[in-house]
From TrEMBL:
<dbReference type="Pfam" id="PF08241">
    <property type="entry name" value="Methyltransf_11"/>
</dbReference>
<protein>
    <recommendedName>
        <fullName>Methyltransferase type 11 domain-containing protein</fullName>
    </recommendedName>
</protein>
<dbReference type="InterPro" id="IPR029063">
    <property type="entry name" value="SAM-dependent_MTases_sf"/>
</dbReference>
<dbReference type="InterPro" id="IPR013216">
    <property type="entry name" value="Methyltransf_11"/>
</dbReference>
<feature type="domain" description="Methyltransferase type 11">
    <location>
        <begin position="97"/>
        <end position="142"/>
    </location>
</feature>
């Protein structure tokens, strides 16, 4: 196990289903983060893949031009998931109450988890379930930034840094025997981001309507058993 009992705690102890009872039709990261994520999906995912979008929402950030064999969505709000045009079907489940995924072994070619890993209280068990349902050579892509619902994130995440959070996700992978060595991708805001902003963007920053810098992009990727080589 990676986390201590204290590290799994949340400030808001109400069931997550209550917190997510009302739909939020917003994106929780900026356009640059989304572009980086979509480009990563374009490189890692193939049209013939069957994909599970874990802890999803009303948008999956998959490449618009690609039609995948199957995309299954999971989340906590049915209204959000029903709006997601990429999903063939979806299911609602609180993984902090029951980590079991109701799929047979080796059901998917890829599993995605976007800006949500910080809310898992039993991440080791969830990662073990992901490993179980992945086909050999299947990929698990976990992406995140520095944004979060502070009172619903676990203590180990809240109290950490960007580097520490990356290492935490790496350890989640490493505690499951059979995943390849995790690959880490970091794209951090540069000084040029601020210089290239438009005058309107700078005014919006001053009045608090826009973040002063781009969202950092982090992704941790590993494969079940081996990383396949595609021609």
């Amino acid at each position: 196990m990676v986390l201590t009992q204290q590290g799994r705690t949340k400030l808001n102890i109400l069931p997550d289903r209550e917190f997510y009872a009302f739909p939020r039709f917003v994106t929780h990261v900026d356009d640059r983060f989304i572009s980086n994520l979509t480009n990563l999906y374009g490189k890692c995912l193939r049209p013939e893949f069957e994909i599970l979008d874990l802890m999803s929402s009303w948008v999956s950030h998959l490449p618009q031009e690609v039609k995948y064999k199957k995309v299954v969505g999971h989340g906590l709000n049915a209204q959000e998931l029903a709006k997601n045009p990429k999903l063939d079907y979806f299911f609602v489940k609180d993984l902090n109450e029951d980590e079991k995924l109701q799929f047979e072994n080796c059901s998917f070619d890829a599993v995605l988890c976007t800006v949500s890993v910080q809310y898992l209280q039993q991440p080791e068990k969830v990662f073990a379930e992901v490993f179980r349902i992945l086909r050999p050579g299947g990929v698990f892509i976990v992406s995140f930034s520095n944004r979060l619902f502070y009172d619903k994130a676990i203590s180990a995440w809240r109290d950490s840094t960007g580097y520490g959070r990356v290492q935490l996700v790496v350890q989640y992978f490493q505690c499951i025997k059979g995943f390849t060595e995790p690959e880490v991708i970091r794209k951090l805001p540069s000084n040029d981001d601020q210089e290239n902003k438009s005058p309107l963007s700078k005014i919006m920053q001053l009045i608090g309507l826009l973040s002063a810098s781009s969202d950092p992009f982090y992704a941790v990727i590993a494969y079940r058993n081996f990383k396949p080589v595609h021609e």
